Amino acid sequence: MSGGWANTSCLFTDGVDQIFDYGNVANGPLIPLPRKSRNDGRALAGTSPEYITLLRPTGPSCIVSASHPKPRIVEIPMTELEQLQETIIACTKCPRLVPYREEVARTKRRMYMDWDYWGKPLPAYGDHQARLLLVGLAPAAHGGNRTGRMFTGDRSGDWVYGTLYKFGFSSSPDSQRRDDGLVLYDTFITAALRCAPPANKPLKEERLECLPYLIRELELMDTVRVVVALGKIAFDTYLTTFAPRGLALPKPLPKFGHLVTYALDGGVTLIGSYHPSQQNTQTGRLTHEMFDAVFAKAKELLDQPVAIKADSN
Ligand code: SF4
Fold it and tell me: How large is the C-alpha radius of gyration of the chain?
């Protein structure tokens, strides 16, 4: 087990109706969060009357006693999904992307000179039992590659979190730093590629290299019911996960388009969306109304009762 609680970000409860993010220091600000929130892998794993267990993808986890004034840090085994994120963060498989992401982190953009760039592959983010999954393309060089969280710290993120918030999938419309306490509700965000590619253009071999991570995440997340693919590459990459997972694809194959919807094998509905890149949003190819329609559709699908198959015996 590592570290004392004073240098560790922990959530704890006041024992009544709120959970607080204790931040990184002993006297850090208290950020109230909804009681049943799940955050960045720090999902509530148990809610016995006295203790609430909080898991995190990295570092020590916390067991918090409602009656104890300070959180206690205990070692809790990571789930397979959390272990997978650790593996991804340490990945150095792509010979072009590793030096690129590190060089960007070293040289920085002038306006972010005071940032300690993340400069590593990005872990997926959100509720590990989510029913809604977003698949993006790849981190932006000075967005996710700087902040360390999917769609955090760039214009695309403003669109994504702004819209998630509007439809009740996020605790905040604003996502600028990975330690801001933002919570995703019933939502998990991942990407086709975990490292920032030059000019936002990954090579085919890089996409193939990263694909096993997405496949494994999907295998581990059997709660997912709706997938929103942001852009054609994300859409096509998601489809390529079907055969390795033993799932069938319809013929003809689903074709990418904005707001196209396909009910697929495994009980998942795939929705296509134009990527909220500046190229699309500044040219009007993607408007807020169009993006809203995607998440309105996702919410409508999630709100539908799940059909329970009759027992054939
Ligand atoms: S893009 Fe994926 S496979 Fe390539 S180095 Fe990054 S995490 Fe590893």
Answer: 20
User: How many A from CA of 97 to the centre of ligand 1?
Assistant: 7
* pTM as predicted: 0.79
Task: Summarize pLDDT for 165-221 with one digit per residue, the tens.
Answer: 999 999 999 999 988 888 899 999 999 999 999 999 999 999 999 999 999 999 999
Answer yes or no: do 176 and 263 share one domain. Answer: yes
Closest CA to 58 of 80, 25, 39, 83: 83
The whole domain housing 176 covers 80-303
143 and 267 assigned to the same domain? yes
From 137, 200, 206, the mutation candidate for ligand 1 (largest count of ligand atoms within 8 A of CB) is 206
Cβ-count burial 37-74 (b if 16+ within 10 Å, e if not): bbbbbbbbeeeeeebbbbbbbeebbbbbeeeeeebebe
> What is the 191 CA–ligand 1 centroid distance (Å)?
11
What is the arrangement of strands in the sheet containing 11-13, beginning at the earlier edge strand?
11-13, 18-21, 31-34
Q: Are residues 70 and 122 in the same domain?
A: no
| Residues 64/11, Cβ–Cβ less than 8 Å | yes
Q: Same domain, yes or no, for 10 and 92?
A: no
Beta pairing class for 61-65 and 51-54? antiparallel
83: confidence class by pLDDT, cuts 50, 70, 90: confident
109 and 250 fall within a common domain: yes
Contact 119, 145 (CB under 8 A): yes
